[in-house]
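Job type: complex structure
Entries:
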Amino acid sequence: MELYIGYFAGFLGTVCWVPQAWKAWATRDTSGLSLAANILFLLTVTLWLVYGLLVTDWPLIFANGCALLIVLSIVAAKLKYK
Amino acid sequence: MELYIGYFAGFLGTVCWVPQAWKAWATRDTSGLSLAANILFLLTVTLWLVYGLLVTDWPLIFANGCALLIVLSIVAAKLKYK
């Protein structure tokens, strides 16, 4: 039971940023987005990926590898359309 | 070494949303924020908190308890100033 909640939380934590990336690129409206928060979050996801690689934890590597690409695209949209 | 990276990633993943919450309330500009993404992220953080409580993991409980309050304030700002 706990395990399913953990896996679902991990999955949701990765895909939940897809609507934000989509919105930023589709509307080009990124004025409300905090660049500081998104760069710090990008750093967070990168650190989790490094941690996952160091301890060879595949769910961590996979989830944060995907999240890295999505968050990178949000930061790119913010820098492009600021 | 891995442990320090993990702890720092956990800490950063919680505090990184403070600038976003601050920006949303200070500028009242939430037009670029995706409500769907932030509600899904709120659900993610809630699930991690529930998971932490079920397996009695205090770092998870503390980090996600704090994150829950911050993300809740971002969603509240988005709903108030949409």
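Summary: Chain B has a mean pLDDT of 93. Residues 58-80 of chain B form the longest helix (23 residues).
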